[in-house]
Amino acid sequence: xxxxxxxxxxxxxxxIDLGFKTLGSKTHERLLKKLSVPPGQHGTRRRRKLxxxxxxxxxxxxxxxxxxxxxxxxxxYFKKAAFKKGNTAIYLAKFLEKRLDNVVFxxxxxxxxxxxxxxxxxxxxxxxxxxxxxxxxxxKKDDIITFSNEAVMKVSYIEKMLASKDxxxxxxxxKKATVSKIVAEPTNAEIEKQINLRLVIEHYSR
Length: 206
Fold this sequence. Notes:
Elements: H1 7-14, H2 26-34, H3 52-67, H4 71-83, H5 88-97, H6 100-106, H7 113-121, E1 125-127, E2 130-131, E3 144-147, H8 150-153, H9 156-163, E4 173-176, E5 179-182, H10 189-192, H11 197-205
Antiparallel strand pairs: 1-2, 1-3, 3-5, 4-5
């Protein structure tokens, strides 16, 4: 099942900002202040050293939460990546990055992956001028992503995102106004900034 509990609690347990909250919001500011303190009444106590298996498990969980997947979904992506010849971690990253909800988030069309997922499910996103309502839809090179109508762009949080100049696009993505285009195959560079994919691969390869 997909996790539906307190998001900041998960981010604090993993020790990294998993993008659950909108940048600049009060809840995000509170998270950053407490990010180094694990949740619970014993959060300030020193943690025990993790075993290799525990470290692998924690990285896998981080990846799950980052892309908001359940265990079955992530394992399916791993099997597809492992089936291909080459670096499994890179293929796993490609499959995750090319999810439509992730591309909407990376392009700065929504503040979080959760809101990006909602936009997709509600039919507010078009791929190559066709509505797509499946968050896991795999985007391809040269695909063009836009909003389905102008009314969506007038929603307050979307207006703020479109007006923001702080969006850092990955090098495989281009954006002009409200139109985003996939210009290259995604890499594992963005994910590796937060997750050690090697440990995730080791966990599933046991």
